[in-house]
Amino acid sequence: MATFKPTTIQVYPKLGEKVTQDMLYWKNYKPPVQRKEFGAVTNIDFSPVAPYNYAVTAFTRIHIYGTFSQEPVKAFTRFKDTAYCGRFRADGQLLVAGCQDSVVRLFDVSGRVALRIFKGHTKAVHVTDFASDRYQIMTGSDDYTCRLWDIPNATELTSYQEHTDYVRCGVTSKLNRDLFITGSYDHTFKLFDARVDKSVMTMDHSHPVESLLLYPSEGLLVSAGGRYVKVWDLLKGGQPLVSMKNHHKTVTCLCLSSNGQRLLSASLDRHVKVYNTTSYKVVHNFDYAASILSLALAPDDESIVVGMTNGVLSVKHRKSAEESKEITGQQRRRPAYRVFVKGKNYVPKQDDYLVSKPVRQHLAKYDKQLKKFEVSKALDTALEASGRSRNPGIAVAVIKELDRRGTLKNALAGRDEEGLALLLNFLIRNLVDPRFAPVLVGTAEMILDIYRSVIGQSPVIDGQVLRLQDLVGRELGYQQNLLEVLGMLDTMFAFSLPKKPVPSSGTGGPNGLAQGEPTALVPQLQAT
Fold first, then answer.
1. How far apart are CA 473 and CA 16, in angstroms?
2. Which of 143-157, 274-288, 404-418 has the lowest mean pLDDT?
């Protein structure tokens, strides 16, 4: 008696996302290195000069980390309450930070004690930044004011009180020392000019503004608040250009890649989205374990640093050229592999006797049922296995085997409502998949022929049949549209072909066409 041959499960091509240059670029990072801070990480800022250390503001401390350091190389702890927004100056020598106690402190990166203390705000200062001339500081506070300070004299230069709620974000111009922008929980952000006693431009974000970002050219501004990220054209009076809603919770911070071609946004939904700044479409996504409060990119995108609400600082470093090379040749084997292949390559000698041992055949459950001619149970088992492994190819392979044996109709017939619903669900999920359609279309026709008499007696079956009918109808509509498009493309390609030369003698050309008419259409029309 011949041995039973197991059902061959065909390997179908995967219908996944197309691998893009962005996916390759943003996935080329090592596994994250995590560091635990004393509280929620509210701000991360990279030094603009080598060796590109970064300042992490969390709870009552500001820690400065080296590019690859596991522990802080510097710590500023002279805060009486929670510190906010530690930022480097353009030369990397000074660092400014606000505090819950309403005092602004200026530090020398090489020292520990504050060089200057600026007092004037009456509530927590959440926004600090240096002006482009390096001698002025912009601050924003929960007392609804934003102020400019002179560093050498430690005095207040000007103050604006136009917001009607907390000022929680801001950015200074790197091209003009007098310009800065502040965002508030009153849903607006305002452009100020230190030479004028009031704001020169006001824009409404429609949600509490959490973060602001200026493009290097400073013609475009990005605002984040609520679930929205919006782009504004400052050269056209603050005209809105794009509004993106790709996050599920509040967007907390923004960042720009080193070349300015990718925009990153992080949110409380634990995701970091990467946008193409040309089309503003999401080209990549990062997932994290907790809600994100701060985000920063190292120069040349060498590192991605993310601060979360649970006090965890996550750092991803880019792989080197050697580490990013793909492994060629044989794949890495498990250490015990050589134990299982021991003696496989032994070649017997001329006088040796070879004693063969029959290899035990391990059959899947549906194959065992097929071997016993339990065709209906085999089909049910294959459907369950497809659902567990999310591989419809198992059930499709069993259906093809049943059809080859001529027992497919017996396997489909005689089912109760639950068994028929299982079959119809499988067809609804996979019928229009081009990989399985050649097999499942005939199966669907057979099921409708067998159970035509019971349609109309069960609301569950009737609903599934209607869904199947709607699915097939929509697919036929798509096919009809595609055929129409193909017809138009054929006509366009035919007219784009070069014209064949026409003989000079006689008034008629080949195929009876007048001289000068396109002859390339004739073979196309004949083929049609």
1. 25
2. 404-418
